[in-house]
């Protein structure tokens, strides 16, 4: 089933008044009866196990599936979640997760746990359960099962009171990094890739040691495998999942904020070139194009800032590599000028229309401008005059874009701006 049915109200006229769960119309007795039915598929599985292929995946009875899907929907209610915890439903669900060979049943049970974990009190309660270890939950079900599992992990990591214990569990379970990176490097499910990316992003923000632990895994299995770069799911289908692309580029940006991360990227010419080529392709061919209206920069500002930050860090570390040489990156240099030009035009538009951007958007635009200026200033100080001429001849630079860039570089990067003006004065 792709969609869960609507939650049931108590339809038993003989149910006592206090049968209702909290302020809801849901029946305690119905819920308890349904939870006990979770064990039935395990019993059937055991009875049919003799002589059966151990790798076979039994089907879930449709009637049972319908009823436990109702529980899944009901568990989004805080009163229901509290009752489930009081009934120790987590123990039942965990037993099913560990023992079941039915992917759909496992998916539903993990999904219910994920809903319960959305509420701080119930999340604290289930997180204290040592049996709710990631090693038990790291089953290798189909992508829908993996999705709800990752959602559960992200939910718990997002709760300040319980995230420390989950961080410790992740550190103590080597298979967690392996499973996360396996999904990131092999899955073709965009939704799953996005959710896993959010988990890694969250872990990087929460714990510096965990970032150090994950660096070799993420770099080896994900960001640096150009031949099997399955981030191409959100990358190549960015219109389908722009948020996913932002998440993964932010992860790569975070990796470059520590020495181990940036060195792991640039230490090998092959690895560095693969990463550089991928990011340049996104910037030069997909973002902030010449035929785009300047306002497009408002939609792409976060993504552009992350990608340009990585490219800038790589350029500063290993500018001697062939892939970062000026004559091979004319289009990229032109894109940097265009980004600054579009930013300036958006700022002028706001001034003329006397409109005011919100604080968050203004900060994001400032970050993009500062990132772009820093990268461009490093390039301009090493830009040969003949390359400047080639940029103009190829149509990557114009008088307007050069003037805009020069104004943006002042006053922080005035030396780079002055050097460029001097070298390009006779050509523009």
Automatic annotation (TrEMBL):
Family: Belongs to the SAAL1 family.
Annotated GO biological process: positive regulation of synoviocyte proliferation
PANTHER family in the record: PROTEIN SAAL1, SERUM AMYLOID A
Sorted UniProt keywords: Nucleus
Region spans: Disordered: 1-21
Protein source organism: Erpetoichthys calabaricus (Rope fish)
Name of the featured protein: Serum amyloid A-like 1
Main location as per UniProt: nucleus
């Amino acid at each position: 089933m792709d969609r869960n049915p609507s939650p049931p109200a108590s339809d038993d006229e003989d149910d006592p008044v206090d049968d209702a769960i909290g302020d809801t119309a849901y029946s305690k007795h119905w819920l308890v009866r349904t939870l006990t039915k979770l064990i039935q598929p395990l019993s059937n599985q055991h009875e049919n196990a003799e002589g059966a292929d151990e790798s076979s995946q039994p089907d879930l009875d449709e009637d049972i599936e319908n009823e436990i899907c109702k529980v899944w929907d009901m568990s989004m209610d805080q009163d229901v979640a509290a009752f489930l915890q009081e009934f120790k439903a987590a123990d039942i669900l965990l037993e099913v997760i560990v023992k079941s060979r039915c992917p759909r049943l496992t998916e539903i049970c993990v999904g219910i746990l994920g809903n319960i974990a959305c509420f701080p009190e119930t999340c604290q309660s289930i997180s204290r359960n040592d049996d709710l270890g990631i090693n038990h939950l790291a089953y290798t079900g189909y992508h829908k099962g993996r999705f709800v599992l990752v959602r559960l992990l992200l939910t718990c990591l997002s709760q300040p009171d319980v995230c420390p214990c989950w961080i410790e569990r992740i550190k103590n379970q080597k298979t967690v990094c392996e499973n996360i990176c396996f999904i990131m490097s092999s899955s073709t499910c965009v939704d799953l890739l996005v959710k896993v990316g959010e988990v890694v992003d969250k872990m990087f923000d929460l714990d510096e040691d965990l970032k150090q632990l994950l660096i070799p895994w993420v770099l080896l299995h994900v960001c640096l495998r150009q031949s099997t770069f399955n981030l191409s799911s959100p990358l190549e289908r960015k219109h389908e999942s722009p948020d996913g692309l932002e998440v993964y580029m932010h992860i790569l940006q975070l990796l470059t904020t520590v020495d181990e991360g940036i060195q792991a990227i640039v230490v090998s010419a092959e690895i560095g070139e693969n990463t550089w080529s991928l990011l340049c392709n996104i910037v030069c061919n997909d973002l902030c194009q010449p035929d785009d209206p300047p306002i497009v920069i408002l939609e792409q500002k976060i993504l552009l800032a992350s990608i340009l930050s990585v490219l800038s860090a790589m350029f500063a570390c290993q500018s001697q590599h062939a892939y970062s040489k000026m004559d091979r990156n004319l289009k990229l240099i032109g894109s940097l000028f265009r980004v600054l030009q579009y930013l300036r035009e958006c700022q002028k538009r706001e001034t003329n229309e006397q409109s005011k951007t919100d604080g968050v958007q203004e900060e994001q635009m400032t970050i993009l401008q500062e990132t772009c200026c820093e990268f461009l200033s490093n390039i301009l100080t090493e830009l040969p005059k003949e390359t400047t001429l080639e940029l103009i001849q190829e149509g990557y630079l114009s008088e307007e874009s050069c003037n805009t860039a020069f104004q943006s570089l002042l006053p922080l990067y005035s030396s780079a701006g002055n050097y460029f003006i001097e070298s390009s004065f006779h050509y523009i």
